[in-house]
C-alpha cells in the first residue's frame, strides 16, 4: 500500500512528497521521496542523469526504470520520479 505522508517541498519545476510504502505482509513500512512535475522533458532529463550516476556515493538514488504518470489534485497529468529519502 502506498500512502502520502507529507509535502517535503515545492518549486517552479514541481514538488517533492514523502511516501510510505507498506508491504502486503504488514512488515515494517519504508519511506521514499517522489518528485512530481508537469514538465516531462525536464524531469526525464534529471532522471536520465541520476540513472547514469546510480550507485555513486553522495548522489541520491532513483527507483525504477522510468518515470511514472499520474494525475494531481487538480486533474492535470503529472510525471513522477521515485527517489531514496535523504535526511540531513
From TrEMBL:
Domain of life: Eukaryota
Protein name: Protein kinase domain-containing protein
Organism: Brassica cretica (Mustard)
Amino acid at each position: 500500500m502506498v500512502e502520502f505522508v507529507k509535502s517535503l517541498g515545492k518549486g517552479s519545476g514541481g514538488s517533492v512528497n514523502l511516501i510510505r510504502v507498506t508491504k502486503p505482509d504488514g512488515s515494517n513500512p519504508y519511506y521514499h521521496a517522489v518528485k512530481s512535475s508537469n514538465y516531462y522533458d525536464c524531469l526525464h532529463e534529471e532522471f536520465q542523469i541520476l540513472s547514469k550516476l546510480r550507485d555513486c556515493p553522495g548522489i541520491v538514488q532513483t527507483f525504477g526504470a522510468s518515470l511514472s504518470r499520474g494525475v494531481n489534485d487538480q486533474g492535470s497529468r503529472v510525471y513522477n520520479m521515485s527517489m531514496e529519502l535523504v535526511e540531513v
